[in-house]
Amino acid sequence: MKKKLFLALLSAILIFPIVSAHSQQKDKDDDDDDDRPVFRPPSLKPGEKPADFDFSCPYRKGYQHPAKFSGFTVQLLPGTKAPAERCRATIASAKGTVTTAAADWALTVDKISGADVNGDGQADLVIDAYSGGERCCFTYTIVGLGTAPKVIRKIESRSALIFEKQTDGSVLIHGPDSTLDYFLVPHPMAVVPQVFMKMHGDNLENVSSQFQAQYDRLIEEAREQLTSADLEKFRQSRYNDKMFTDQLPTMRRVLTIVVNYLYSGREEQAWKALEELWPASDQGRVKGLILERRGRGLLKQINGANAIAASDGA
Asked: What domains, with CATH codes, occur in the chain?
């Protein structure tokens, strides 16, 4: 009996350090997991500023100073305590009639204001708004300054857009289609294509096909980084095995090629590249996912001749 008790105690003494070390290692692994960055959509607290855009109200001192465009006076003013009305933009005519053009968490008068944004020969006003993260995310209100101010169009985007005057006098609107963020690859590796647009009257049109050179630079860079060995390994992989997590750089490069062909108006080349570079057993799934994301992103607001049809890519 004493011998059995001695053996049990000896076993406990020998096993405890192993169990303890395993527990410590597990705790260390858990700590490492906790240290990994967690990426979330942007959401601001009162007083915080959006990182990728500079807004006047309520951050900039003197934001209430009025500005004049084509006989109208534009002013940013404090709104209510409601997040969606913390700032408001008013337009006053020469006769004193005041109209509220926009209201949101944060506002600024875009630098393009005073230019002819929609090509109707009259000056326009553009109010940039940010929701603060409660809703997502940026809203651009385009106001025509004719005989009376009139909202022509509102454009919503998950990322900041740029209004840029071209040499021919037209105004280019461009920015990333962030609906492809957090798509197939981790956020830091996300393939987020640019979209180029123009206003014609109250229509927003996709003119990305006119800027293929900018997409081609990204396509060429991705092709140069693809090695035959990496591509062959990727082509022979199956999504159900490791979900391609062991080949993220290769997957990102292939996705860069496909997506930039698609967004630059070369759909046939996009699907040809997908067929040549992506694992055959997974092509249908990925094509459907890309089309679904594109269909509910920035291009969803496009209308006119270049609109995305419901059956696009079918």
From this structure: 40-165 (2.40.128), 177-314 (no CATH)
